[in-house]
Specification:
It is a single chain. By secondary structure, the protein is α/β, with parallel strands linked by helices. The protein folds into three domains: 44 residues, 434 Repressor (Amino-terminal Domain) (Orthogonal Bundle); 126 residues, Rossmann fold (3-Layer(aba) Sandwich), CATH 3.40.50.2300; 128 residues, Rossmann fold. Helix content is 44%, strand content 16%. The strands form two sheets. A six-stranded parallel β-sheet has the order 2-1-3-4-5-11. It has a six-stranded mixed β-sheet with strand order 7-6-8-9-10-12, with helices on both faces. Helix 1 packs across helix 2. The N and C termini lie far apart (66 Å). It binds a DNA duplex through helix 2 and helix 4. This is Transcriptional regulator LacI family.
DNA sequence: TATGCACGTTGTCCTGTCAA
DNA sequence: TTGACAGGACAACGTGCATA
């Protein structure tokens, strides 16, 4: 074994005359050590430059103080915001986060889960990719607590927005506030729960407004570059008109905005996620977002509670949403 | 190839001291 | 004598390396 210059509990014990055990407890401010001893040992530890060996701690306790955050696409600003919030909230519990990206790919997601398990993370927050059921069953069998964020899959614990209401509010706003009758819905892939639910909400709003549903105005796209432009071009080519756009996410809404710029079309767009709450420099956009606590807040709270109690996350939480007008 | 040890830390249990 | 408090002893965690 290579001897390093790292200061250990043993070094502090030799210097102070206490045992390694007492030093450990003093450094953790345990109440079975007198304050005088704690102050003395902590002072010496600081002077010697002691840094806790997390690997040794986790070997003994079985916990590493880290949670894996596995996301579909970290280039999406929504996920960047989630990471920042999760990291900040987890740090309040003395936890750090280990971020992995799946690119919406099932195999990559499985590797990410295995990678995180190898790092001995204490829990998982996952935005699952499409067709992820096998991966989630695998994770469930490990006994590690986990919570899905943003998407619901079967009875797995999750924190999501009320996606049906999101779709409803967005389409309703376009119909009532802007008076639009031909609302194009640029949706995500229907294999994920939120896309299905938002579509249901969209249809409910149309029905309420007495607008007939036209399936040609519902387009599922990926986040790959050019996907939206191609859809808009195909609509134009087929002479299918639209006077308002509901985008599956703010990211798609901004891409749509970009695709329409220079075409001369002035079409109101409503997105979902309300990322301007955090990214205030983004262009004005009508958007639906969480009415109160964010998904990250609820997910971290749920996961930390499960880790603390040694149980699994069991709930499926659906957060209320509201429409945030752009204020243009 | 099998076994044992070392690494650093900490949970649990035990012992010693002292005051009431 | 009893109970509270302070601190010590032991064992075990996962992995890599040395030795038999």
């Amino acid at each position: 074994m290579i001897k390093t210059n790292r200061v250990t509990l043993r070094d502090i014990a030799e210097r102070t005359g206490y045992t390694v055990n007492t030093v450990s407890r003093a450094l953790h401010h345990r109440d079975d050590i007198s304050k005088k001893t704690v102050d003395y040992i902590c002072g010496i530890a600081d002077e010697m430059g002691y840094i806790n060996d997390n690997i040794a701690s986790s070997m003994r306790t079985g916990r590493t103080g880290t949670v894996a955050v596995i996301l579909a696409d970290i280039t999406n600003p929504l996920f960047a915001i989630m990471v920042r919030e999760t990291e900040q909230l987890a740090s309040e519990y003395d936890y750090s986060v280990f971020i992995l990206n799946t690119n919406e790919d099932k195999e990559t997601e499985l590797q990410a889960i295995k990678n995180a398990l190898g790092k001995k993370v204490d829990g998982f927050i996952i935005c699952p990719c499409p067709d992820c059921r096998d991966n989630l069953e695998f994770l469930k069998k490990t006994g590690k607590p986990y919570v899905l964020i943003g998407r619901r899959v079967g009875d797995h614990p999750s924190v999501i927005l009320d996606d049906e209401k999101s779709g409803y509010l967005a389409a309703k706003y376009l119909a009532e506030h802007y008076g639009r009758r031909r609302i194009l819905f640029i949706n995500g892939l229907l294999s994920i729960s939120c896309a299905k639910d938002r579509l249901a909400g969209y249809r409910r709003a149309l029905e309420e407004a007495g607008i007939p549903y036209d399936g040609r105005l519902v387009r599922s796209v990926t986040t790959k570059a050019g996907a939206i432009s191609r859809q808009l071009e195909s609509l134009d080519a087929a002479n299918i008109g639209y006077d308002g756009i509901f985008a599956f996410s703010d990211l798609l809404a901004y891409e749509t905005m970009n695709s329409l710029s220079g075409t001369g079309k002035d079409v109101p767009i409503v997105g979902i996620d309300h990322i301007r709450k955090n990214l205030f420099y983004m262009p004005p956009l009508d958007s639906v977002g969480a009415a109160g606590k964010s998904m990250s807040e609820e997910a971290v709270r749920m996961l930390m509670n499960a880790i603390k109690t040694g149980s699994l996350c069991g709930d499926q939480i659906c957060l209320d949403v509201k429409l945030y007008p752009s204020g243009k």
